[in-house]
Amino acid sequence: WYTAPEENIERVKVVAVTESGCIAETMDGFAVNIGSCQAQPGDFVMAPVDKKAKERAAAMNPTT
Predict the structure, then answer these.
(1) Reading across the β-sheet that carries 31-35, which strands appear in turn?
(2) Is 2 within 8 Å of 14 (Cβ atoms)?
(3) Thinking of the domain 7-60, which architecture would CATH place it in?
(4) CA atoms lying within 13 Å on the CB side of residue 63
(5) What is the largest CA-CA distance in the chain?
(6) Best CA proximity match to 15, nearest among 42, 36, 37
(7) Where does 1-64 show beta strands of DSSP type E?
(8) Sequence ranges of the domains in the chain
(9) pTM above 0.85?
């Protein structure tokens, strides 16, 4: 099952830098991997965020 991404550019806060890329938190509280970045934890950056991934995460955790 393949779902094509629907990306929006959003302002996110970098929370970690890993081998898999930068992990950031969106303004509405979703953790997303934004890929390679030159930021440090705590920095705010503009990054593409897959809207459909956020929708799937919300469906799996209805408390958000």
Answers:
(1) 31-35, 21-26, 7-18, 44-50
(2) no
(3) Beta Barrel (2.40)
(4) 0
(5) 35
(6) 42
(7) 7-18, 21-26, 31-35, 44-50
(8) 7-60
(9) no
